[in-house]
Amino acid sequence: MALTDRALPARRMFGAQTSVRRWRGIGPAPVGIAAALICTLPVLALIPMAFAGGGAHISHLLDTQLADYALNSAALVCIAIAGTWLLGVPTAWITTRYEFPGRRLFLIALPLPLAMPSYIAAYAWLSMTAAAGPVHDALGGFFPTVSGIAGAGFVFSICLYPYVFLLARQAFESHGVNSFEAARTLGASPMRAFWKISLPLARPSIMAGMALVVMETLADYGTVDFLGTPTFTVGILRAWISFGDPDAAARLALILLILTLIVFGGERVLRRGRSVSEIGGRSKPQRRVRLSARTALLAAICCAVPVLLGLAAPVAHLIMLALETQPVRSPLDALQGTMLVASLSALIAVTIGLGAAYAARTGGWFAQASVRAAHAGYAVPGAVAALGVIAMLAAVQSLFDGFSGWTAPLITGGGLAALLFAYQARFAAAAIGPCESALARITPTMDQAARSLGASRWSVIRRIHVPMAFSGIATAALLVFIEVMKELPATMILRPLDFETLAVSAHHYASDERLAQTALPSLMLVLLGLPVMMLVSWLVTRRQAESAS
Amino acid sequence: MAAARNIHKLYCKLFLLALFEPLTQQKENTMRLGILGLAIAVLGLSACNNTGTGDGSTSASGKDEMLVIFSSRHYDSDYALYDAFEKETGIDVRTIEADGDLLVERLKADGARSPADVIVTVDAGRLWRAEQEDLFAPLKSDTLTEQVPAAMRHPDGFWYGLATRARVLVYAKDRVKEGELAGYETLADPAFKGRVCARSSGNIYNISLLAALIDRWGSDKAQQWATGVANNFARDPLGGDTDQIKAVAAGECDVALVNHYYFARLMRDDKDKGVVKDLAVFWPNAGEGVHVNVSGAGVAKNAPNPELARRFIEFAMTEQPQRFFAELTNEYPAVSSITYDNAALKELGDFKADPISLSKLGENQAEAQQLFDRAGWR
Fold this sequence. Notes:
Chain A is mainly α. Chain A is built from 25 helices and two strands. Chain A has helices spanning 2-7, 9-23, 29-52, 56-63, 66-97, 103-109, 118-129, 134-138, 148-175, 178-185, 190-219, 222-226, 232-241, 246-271, 293-323, 332-362, 365-374, 382-404, 410-413, 417-440, 444-452, 457-486, 489-494, 502-511, 515-548, and strands at 98-99, 289-290.
C-alpha cells in the first residue's frame, strides 16, 4: 500500500478525501455505537422498571428526606470538586514545572491513593480520628473526627484527587512550555502565565478528571452511609432495601442520572467555542526550574500532604491492625480473582474507549451523541447498575428462550461474562475520557498533513495517533484496572460460584465491623495498585525523554 | 475441578502478560501485541465459559456431588460449617455470598435455571421478602420440626432459623444507673437528651427493631418513640454498632442501641477488652421482651439438588455447627438444647425474647423506614 501511495500521490490524495467524505459518520461510528450500547443497555433496562412501580415511596420521600438527600449530594460534590482541584492541580503543576529533591518520588507516590477504595479510607480515617483513635489521642482531639458532610468530602478529596492529578499532569507535560515561555517573554508573571495559558490548555484533561470525581462521588454508597451523610444514593438504596421496592430505586437512579447528564451537558455547552489547542507541531521538552532550598521544601510539603492523607496515614493504620490480627482466610484466591477480572477489563475497556474516542473524533453527530451517552453508566450507583445488568440479562435470556430453547442460565452459566459486561457498562466511560483527551492532543492539522502526504487511515492511527496518545491510553487502562479492582456491588452479585476478589473479602469483614480483618485484603489491594501506578508514571516520563531526543 | 482451577491460574498469568507486555515494548510493536492480547482475552472468556458450564455438567452426572449455597452471611462460623459438611459428607460446597437484596434479585433473574440449592440470609425481614418473591420450596422434616422451636422457623417449612442475635442497650456504668433503664422506651426518654447513640436508620437491625415495636405498640407510639430517640441523639448516626459502643466508652454518649454479639466480640478480644470494661449490657426484658432477629436457611425453589439441601440444613442443626454459631460468632444457637463454650455469652446472662411472629418484621419493614424518615433519624 505504501508503494502505491508513493506512486500516485495526487490520485491518492484525491481518493483519500472522497473516502473521508464517504465514510464520515460511518467509519468508526459502529464502535462508538457498540460502546454506547454496552454502557447504556443496563441503564435502559432500568426504564421499564422505573415506570412499573407505584409512586407511594417516592411521594413519601418527597415529603420527608428527599430534599435533605439532594442537598447533601450537591454539597458533597462541591467539596469534592474543590478538594480534588486543590490537591490535584497544584501538585501536577509543581511536579511538571519545577525540579526539587524528591520530585521523582512524588511522581510515583502522588497517584497511589487511587488504589485505596474510598470506603476503606473512610473506615480507617473514622477509626483513627474518633475518640480513642491514634490521631485523636496524638493530637489531643485537635484533628476533627472524620464524619458528616465535611468528613465524606475529605475522604473523596484524598481518594479521588489522583484522577485530576494524573490527567492534569499528562496535559501539562504534553503541552510543553512553548506557550508558557512565550507568555513569560511577553512579560506575564509566572502566576498569570499559569492561569491564562497553561491551565486553559490543560482544561479538557482536568475536566475529564473532574467528571470522574463527580460521578464517583454521586454514585458512592459505602462511604457516605458509613460517615452518616445520607445522599441521594443512600435514598436510592433505601428505596430498594428498606421499602423492598427496586422499581422506586430504578426511578430515583434515573432522576440522578438525568441531573448528572444535564450538568455535564451544560459544562460542554459552556466550553464550546473556548477550546484551545496549541499550534506548532513538536513542542520543546520541559526544562524544569530548579528551586531554592526554601521553596523546594515548600514544594515537597505541598506534594507530601495528599500522599500522607490519602495513602500513608490510612495504610499505616491498616498495617498496625493487620500485624495485630491473624488472618482467618488466605487472601491469595481473592488476589488472583482480582487480577484476572481487573486486567481483562482493562484490556477490553481500552479497546472500547479508543474506538469510542475515534468515533467521537471522526464520526458525525450521531456517533458523538452515542459516545456521550456511553458516559451514562458511570453516574449510576454501583448496586443499581448491577440491578440494571441483571434485568437486562434476564430480558436477553427470555429472548434466547423464545428463539432456540437454549436453556443455559445466562448469569451463572456464562462464567465471568456477565461480570465483565457489568464492568464495561460501568467503567468504559473511565477509559473513553482519557482516550479522548489523549487524542485531543493530536490536532486535526496533523491528520490532514499525514493524509495529504499519502498515509492511509490505518497508518495515521498506527504511526501518529498511537505513539502520541500512548501515555493517555496507558492511563486509561490503569484507571479501569484500578476501578475494577475496587468495584463491589456488581462483583458481589454477578461473580461465578466460589469466585472471590479482594474488594469483596474486604467488604465482608468491614460490613461485619471487623476493621482488623479488613486490613489485610485492603492492603493487598493497595499493593496490587502500586506497580500499575509506577509503570504508568515511568511510561509518562519515558515518553517525555523520547520526544526530547 | 482442580484442573479447572489450574487453567484459571494459567490464564490469570497470561492476562497479566497481555496487559503489561505491550506497555513495555517499543511502540512499533504495540498494535500487534495489543491485538494478540485481545485474542488471548477472547480465548480466556471462552475458557471461563467452559469452566462455568463444565461444573454444572459434572454435578449433573451425580459423580461429583455439589451443593450450591447463596448466602448473605459471611462469618467464620459459616465457613467452619461448610468445611464440616464437606468433611462429613464428601459433598463439594460452592457458595456465592452477597448482600441480601442483591441475592434476591439474582435469584429472581436466574429463575428456573438458578443453580442455588440453599438460600441463607441474615434477617427475618429478608427471609420474608424472599418468601414473598416465591424463592423457597417448602421443606418438611420431622427432625427439623423437633429441633427448631416453632418461633424460629416458617410454619410451612420455607425456612429454618440457624441462630439469633438480640438488640440490646449498652450503657456506661459510671454515668447511668441500671435503675434508670426500663427498656427500649428509655432511649426516647427526655431525661436522656443528648446521651444516646445509634447507627443510621437504613440499617436492617434498626428497621427490624422498629418493625417489631410497631407490632408491639402500634404505629403512633412507634412514631413517637423514633422521634424521641432522634431528639436524644448525642451525635448524628455514624458508623456501625461497634462504633456506637466505642462512643459510649469514650464518653460521647451514655447509652447505645446495638446487637449483643458486637459487645461479646469486644469482650473476647484481648486488644479491645479495655473498651468494654466500664460498660454493661442492659436486657430490655420488660413487657414483650428483647427484640431478637434470626438468620435462616431454606431450600431454593428451583434447587437442582433439593435432597442435598435438606441434608445440609439438617446438618446445620446438629451439635457441632450450632456450637460454631455460639463460639465463633457469638450468636445464640437456634437449637436451645445445645450447650456451648463461650464465657462472654454466659456473662451476658439470660434474657426474655420477644415471641413476635418473625414474618411481622418483614411486613412492617417499609413502614418502619417511613417512621424513621419522618422522625428525622438519618
